[in-house]
Amino acid sequence: MRKKITKAVFPVAGLGTRFLPATKASPKEMLPIVDKPLIQYAVEEAVAAGATELIFIIGRNKRSIPDHFDMSFELEATLQAGKKFEVLKQIQNILPKNVSCIYIRQAEALGLGHAVLLAKSVVGDDPFSVILADDLIDAEKPAMQQMVELFGLQGASILGVEDVDPSETASYGIVDAKEVSPNVLELHGIVEKPQPDEAPSNLAVVGRYILTPEIFECLENVKPGKGGEIQLTDGIAALMEKQRILAYRFDGKRYDCGSKLGYVKANVEFSMKHDEIGEEFSQYLRDLIK
Ligand code: UTP
Fold it and tell me: Distance between CA atoms of 231 and 124, rounded to whole angstroms?
């Protein structure tokens, strides 16, 4: 029987240079969209897709993420004493009881491929998902759930992809892929951050992956690539030589929250839909542009 995807890897050890100084003392994945940090949206997406073991690859400024998912006795006691039951429930329910967290330290930011390789000893021989929390995806059915369902049918590694403007290819891993059924493509090539005139398409890999465990052996043999980093893209290119890999054009709207503009757009749109402030904020925007 096909193995279930129960392990999710969250690489959160990047330097976040595009977001300095906000990311000087705190990882960018702790930046909030309205009232929840990016990493919590990512974790909720993984849990909705069936993950029960969450593996965080953490870097410098390492404390805030474990602290966020840990129990906070002092805060809970204070909220309890102040009868602030609604917020108390919110912070107690950040993670369901059947979900456990593992933290692995990436001592140096040697690249996304290196970060994923660090999960090898915990992931072992199982297929697993990777979520980059700075790619926030708003979707009716969470993007990773869509991909896990496809994995259930196909049993192959899957890359979440999206059409980008042809002028933007140098910011992404770009795939050369052939559509085999609606929104499902078979991968024939992948290039990290090509200039538009060298890009095989305008289909970009965004921060959602399902990978088979054979990726680890491929990553072990990857030499530093673009920017001197161990690139996940190079590991995937090597895996493609051994196994069929799919690209999946997921259904949903992605916000590049690793960039200032994408982050602000996400905050505006999530604020407009927010239970507590949505109506008032939308009215505020209407008045502002009058
Ligand atoms: P990015 O390419 O966005 O790099 O990483 P970055 O360092 O976080 O941000 P900038 O470009 O300097 O502004 C993509 C993802 O891979 C993780 C990041 O945390 C992010 O989720 N990553 C990257 C690591 O965990 N380790 C690394 O060595 C590199």
Answer: 20
Beta carbons of 116 and 110 less than 8 angstroms apart: no
198 lies in the same domain as 111 = yes
Is the CB–ligand 1 distance for residue 95 below 6 Å?
no
265 backbone dihedrals φ, ψ, rounded to 5°: -60, -45
Indicate whether 1 belongs to any domain: no
Residue 285 sits in which domain range? 259-290
Cβ atoms of 68 and 37 within 8 Å: the answer is yes
Beta carbon of 15 within 6 Å of any ligand 1 atom? yes
Is 284 part of any domain?
A: yes
Cβ of 109 closer than 6 Å to ligand 1, yes or no, is yes
Output the CA 134–ligand 1 centroid distance in Å. Answer: 9
pLDDT tens digits, one per residue of 185-216: 999 999 999 999 999 999 999 999 999 999 99
Nearest CA to ligand 1 atom 10: 16
Question: Which residues is 203 bridged to in the sheet?
Answer: 163
Residues 219 and 289 both lie in one domain:
no
Single pTM value for the model: 0.95
Q: Is 18 in the pocket of ligand 1 (CB under 6 A)?
A: yes
Check which CATH number belongs to the domain holding 103 and give it.
3.90.550.10
Q: Quick check: is 244 in a domain?
A: yes
